[in-house]
Amino acid sequence: QVQLVESGGGLVQPGGSLRLSCAASGIIFSAFGMSWYRQAPGKQRELVALITSGGNINYADFVKGRFTISRDNIKKTVYLQMNSLQPEDTAVYYCNAESQRGSKFWGQGTQVTVSS
Fold this sequence. Notes:
By secondary structure, this protein is mainly beta. Helices cover 0% and strands 52% of the residues. It is built from no helices and eleven strands. The chain has strands spanning 3-7, 10-12, 18-25, 33-39, 46-51, 57-59, 67-72, 77-82, 91-98, 104-106, 110-114. The strands form two sheets. Strands 2, 4, 5, 6, 9, 10 and 11 form a seven-stranded mixed β-sheet that branches. The radius of gyration is 13 Å and the shape is globular. The termini are far apart.
């Protein structure tokens, strides 16, 4: 059974930082591309950052220079370090795993709220 379990969300003041983690089980983690998406109320889910199985990284323009994605294949965990958070970053953040064959899995999401 595949499980992606996110953690690290919470309430933070503008300008603050959070580190999200997504622990995977039930998949050959090193063979999967891992991504973070987010969905704000009333908006569509959008890609935040991705890291391929080979370590290539891409970011959405709205987080470049503020967020950093990384992965630890031994711990089967992907991270999202979020700095300089702003109220518009408030959303539910989801972890996604996708194989080259197109198998796709989602975590349950973790709430990030940026507010003073």
